[in-house]
Amino acid sequence: MCLVLGTSRFIWRLLQVFRDGITFLGCTQIEMPPLMAIEFLCRAADVLNDYFGALNEDIIKDNFVIVYELLDEMIDNGFPLTTEPSILREIINPPNVVNKALSIVTGSNSNVSDTLSRATASCIPWRTAEPKYSNNEVYVDLVEEMDAIINRDGGLLKCEIYGEVQVNSRISGFPDLTLSFTNPSVLDDVRFHPCVRFRPWESHQILSFVPPDGQFKLMSYRVRKLKSTPIYVKPQLISDGGTCRLSVLVGIRNDPGKTIDSVTVQFQLPPFILSADLTSNHGTVNILAKKTCIWSIGRIPKDKAPSMSGLLVIETGLERLHVCPSFQVGFRIMGVALSGLQIDKLDLKNAPYQFYKGFRALTRAGQFDVRS
Question: Is the Cβ–Cβ distance between 232 and 297 less than 8 Å?
């Protein structure tokens, strides 16, 4: 989003990115590509999330000094400078118990390292100078999240996948890698790490890059050409006087070829429900505070479909439910990318040595809502 504020002397352009309840705001007086500023704001959010493990208002308040120091290193005179988390960790110490204890003992609030980062001697801004490993290896993970909305009739209102190609590179020197997919045409809205050369992707859909040292996100993407979900959830509510009969059935719709494990179904009981007695033929059912019901199914068996049923007691004076709950479904499938994206090959150009490479895939539920 871009806002333009004008006065008699200056015109300010404000750009913002909203992440995990936090608004990142950028301000500029000169004309500039808005996507460049938005990309930097997204990068800043990724760095903070990588440093602190999560991102919310309390974390920002508790680590305000580190946030200020990180932004000071990431921006130089209004221009992006150092944005790679692995290099920033060499400059600014991540928050931990040892660093907090030292700051209390020494009375210093600075987390900036006294030693100069190895990246200052490197000709590539996102990679340290000449890292050396006895075992050269690189691992590529396809991590995908499925977002879906299913109406009360079982119709699919929305189904898309947000995916990331995560790389863990531990290779000596300055390796030049190329990564290709068997079906890159399924990808939409791709976003690359700064190390990716755009021309090979634009012409041949090949990722050519010199990787940062360690773990990083090579690219992110979306896939919208999806017509079904791997599992189905069928809730049913039948009102009878002052009670309501609830039954929920969960099963495998399209067999992905791998076991679906860690399946959970969560929903919020309406405030006018006095009590609930729910049981299941597989897994456990727990009703937590604020009437949050969590059905932990675990691995879905192939011989029977898990089901949950029970009786809900409605508040006196009401004969039926006026507000039906929405069910949030979570699942995980190891070894499968539901988008159908497959890695073709990973090559190392002009390699003076052999290296080991490995590939994995994981799909999990993102915002998977079933309406009743």
Answer: no
Measured between its terminal Cα atoms, the distance across the chain in Å is 34
Mean pLDDT of 141-157: 88
Residue type, 236: Q
Beta strands in 78-170 (DSSP E): 79-80, 137-150, 156-170
Is pTM beyond 0.90? Reply is no
Q: Average of pLDDT values for 259-263?
A: 81
Q: Do domains 2-121 and 231-334 have the same CATH topology?
A: no
| Position 1 confidence tier, pLDDT thresholds 50, 70, 90 | very low
Proportion of the chain above pLDDT 90, given as a percent: 15
pLDDT, residue 145, reads 92
pLDDT at 180: 93
Confidence of residue 166 (pLDDT cuts 50, 70, 90): very high
CATH architecture assigned to 137-227+338-371: Sandwich (2.60)
pLDDT for 106 equals 55
- At the second CATH level, the architecture of 2-121 is 2-Layer Sandwich (3.30)
CATH architecture of 231-334: Sandwich (2.60)
